[in-house]
Write a structure and sequence with these properties.
Order of helices and strands: HHHHEHEHEHEHEH
Largest sheet: 5 strands, parallel
Oligomer: single chain
Structural class: alpha/beta
Shape: globular
Helix content: 55-70%
Distance between the termini: 55 Å
Radius of gyration: 18 Å
Bound molecules: 5-hydroxybenzimidazolylcobamide
């Protein structure tokens, strides 16, 4: 008999890009009562990192990436339903701050951004998710509209990460830089990059993004 756990099976199915099986297995994972966020962060995020490595080594093609991304979405859609049900009351009880989140202009990668959004939400933040390919001005305008505490911008490509700088530059030009904190993340970004562009913080993972958002909110108060 195989000793592969359900979580490991789900990870394998995301890597091999099997959407239907990933959906079914995610439903089974939910039934075991494990923390769905723990599964997303410790099994599914590493699954996508592994997919990226295979692509870089030439073992995977773009079609494989797309299949894995679809399987990842199928699994996270199921798992996040579990999260939302469990934590709805906790959420309403204490709101920690408002976050406008999105992937920057020209960039369609939204898997990591979605994980960050879910984790922030279950930790009490009110989330305004603008999706992907979000123009810099849209981040700022939406943040003004909802009086957001934080703008969280995700960038997955070296060619799109300058848009994170653009958001901050525009805010400086408009004199609104002090109104919202800006945190950045995504695979090609670093702490040094965040400092260089004048962001308020950088996080490597979704869990770190939650800690960062909590810290910057504390310093804001
Ligand atoms: Co895509 N892609 N891709 N891709 N893709 C990358 C990003 C490359 C690095 C692969 C490579 O070449 N080695 C590369 C970018 C190279 C570069 O830097 N210039 C690349 C490319 C080139 C492209 C296309 C241009 C390919 C093409 O069409 N020729 C195209 C993009 C078109 C466009 O955007 N205009 C493309 C398309 C795709 C898909 C559609 C097949 C798919 C995306 C599906 C989707 O997101 N809905 C895809 C994928 C899946 C990847 C890889 C394999 C994985 C990305 C991912 O989901 N990682 C990626 C390879 C890699 O990253 N090594 C590859 C897993 C998540 C969980 O990690 O880093 O996104 P994450 O998020 C973390 C973390 O960064 C942090 O928390 C998250 C959770 O822990 N975080 C934040 C993220 N945002 C934050 C914000 C904050 O404020 C704080 C923390």
């Amino acid at each position: 008999m195989s000793s592969e756990s359900l979580n490991e099976k789900l990870k394998r199915l995301v890597i091999s890009g099997e959407e239907d099986a990933a959906h079914e297995t995610a439903l089974q994972v939910l039934k075991t009562g494990v923390d769905p966020l723990e599964v997303i962060e410790n099994y599914l995020s590493p699954a996508m990192r592994s997919v990226g490595e295979k692509f870089e080594k030439g073992e995977y093609f773009l079609t494989n990436l797309m299949m894995s991304a679809t399987a990842m979405k199928a699994a996270t859609d199921v798992l996040t339903t579990g999260v939302k049900k469990e934590d709805r009351e906790k959420l309403l009880a204490h709101r920690t701050g408002k976050v406008v989140i999105g992937t920057v202009a020209g960039d369609i990668h939204d898997i990591g951004k979605n994980i960050v959004a879910v984790l922030l939400e279950v930790n009490g933040f009110e989330i305004y998710d603008l999706g992907k390919e979000v123009d810099s001005m849209r981040f700022i305008n939406r943040a003004t509209e909802v009086q957001a505490d934080i703008i969280a911008a995700s960038a997955l490509m070296t060619t799109t990460k300058p848009a994170q700088r653009e958001i901050i530059d525009f805010m400086n030009e408009m004199g609104s830089r002090k109104k919202h904190l800006v945190i950045v993340g995504g695979a090609p970004t670093t702490k040094e990059w965040a400092e260089e562009i004048g962001a308020d913080g950088w996080a490597e993972t979704a869990e770190e993004a939650v800690k960062l958002a909590e810290n910057v909110m504390q310093n804001r108060r």
